[in-house]
Every structure is written in structure tokens, then in C-alpha cells.
């Protein structure tokens, strides 16, 4: 994102605050347990949080229940039942052990029939407006699945959420570990949006986006925000790392601005370069490796 913030650029560069959930750090004060406001969100920075689900580790070995789930046989919970009843075998041996891990070279059979797990697929779509991000819609509206129906024979799922009117990058995959990593709070996948507002934005309000705003009793802040060079001050580039639904619209709304249009131009380092609106492409091996290593 390019900026034309002018003289204010230098002053904003000093004491840059950390992005993400919780109160941004200033480096001058560490909150004490007695300072925690009553009823404050557990994400209040400076206080010990409960240990959440760890980031997934990409390895060749996979749990048997996950192997069955990835192959489309059943859910992981249902797989546990199948395993316990003794209808699943690995290399000719009946397995009833929960947590048993399968190697890529193992032969897995369910009820005597060999199972082949799906090839991992990663499909990047430049989503148009008016498509619902859902596998299907009870009201019969157009879904993003209609746009990628010919992308691959494997069943893939959208990563994260996106509003019906929001356009831009949306990733699909059948790789559960990848999906979990990209939506995990600890990973903080970066998302850059081109936002168009109902009126020109004031510089002091632009600065508040990176300083931090309370939304639903939790403070959120943008990693970066700037006016877009060559455009009016109604058009803003903003980079966030939060996975909260509609957080961009909520932050601008807190400052008294209505979002007219929002376009996701970058997601986890992936860009829209050479990808027209409504089209999709498969990630390259290099891009997949980058996401796994990040």
C-alpha cells in the first residue's frame, strides 16, 4: 500500500504499536492483575490467557480417525466409533487403538475395502460481489462453490469467512491442517483490504485505526492503514491480522464511517496478481510450501 499521509508520517512512525487482539503495547507500562477491569474480555493484554489449541504441525504421519475423515468416509468422531468396533485395518491388522497414526506407505481398509485419501488441493478465488461464502445456501442464493465447481474433483472448503458483498481473495482447501493454521489466532494471517467509504476520512481517524479501537469490549488495531495514493481520502488501504467476522466494517463504523465497498487484495502473502475477478487458480508448490513454513 502506498501512502500520501505527508507530514504526519514521521510522527506516526515512532513507537509503533503491536497489532492484534488485546490492548496495544506502549512499552511504558505493564498491567497488573489488580488492574483488570471487571467484565473485561479475557483477551485483555498483560494477563495470562488459557492455553488454546496449538498450531497444527505438518507431518507425514496422520491419526487414523483423521485419515478416515480426510478420505470422506465419515467425521472424526464417527471414525472413532468405527475404529473401536474393529472394522478398520492397517496393513492387514485390525486397529482399535485411539490415536493410532498412519504412515503414507500404509494400506488402510474399511470393511475390507482399501481407502485412498484425497490429494491435497489449494484453490485461490478472486471472489465477485453477491456470492455467499458457504457450501450451500438454504435460501437458494449463489454461493462461491458455484465458481470453483470445476476446479478439482476433491471436495474443498473455504478458509475463513467473507461477507456476501465483499470481493477479493478467498482460499479453498481440503487440507484440514492448513485451514486450521490460517485461521488460528496465534498464526495471525495478514489480510490487506481496499476499503471505499461513504465520505472522506480525517487523518486523525486514520491514525486511530492503528492506535486501537474497542469493538465488542475488545480492543482491535490495524497493523497498517493509509490513504491510497492517487485516490480521494474515501479510499483506504488497511492491513489486519484478526479473524473476527466483519472487523474491518466494525472498526470504520466505530469512527462514524460507512463502508461502501471492501476488497481483499492480499491474504497470507497471496495476491490477486494476474487473477481476474470471478476466476480461480491453484496454488503453486512454492506457495504451498511458503504457507506451511510461515
Compute the separation of the termini in Å: 22 Å
Helix content: 10-25%
**Would you give the CATH topology of the domain at 122-185 and 270-293?**
Alpha-Beta Plaits
Structural class: alpha+beta
Major sheet details: 9 strands, mixed
Number of beta strands: 17
CATH class of the domain at 122-185 and 270-293: Alpha Beta
Q: In the CATH hierarchy, what is the architecture of the domain at 122-185 and 270-293 at level 2?
A: 2-Layer Sandwich
Could you walk me through the main structural features you see in this protein, from its secondary elements to its overall organization?
With 294 residues, this protein is an alpha+beta fold. Among the domains are: 62-114, Structural Genomics Hypothetical 15.5 Kd Protein In mrcA-pckA Intergenic Region, Chain A (Roll), CATH 3.10.290.10; 122-185 and 270-293, 2-Layer Sandwich (Alpha-Beta Plaits). 19% of the residues lie in helices and 22% in strands. The protein is built from seven helices and 17 strands. The strands form four sheets. Strands 7, 8, 9, 10, 13, 14, 15, 16 and 17 form a nine-stranded mixed beta sheet that branches. Helix 2 crosses helix 3. The protein is elongated, with a radius of gyration of 23 Å.
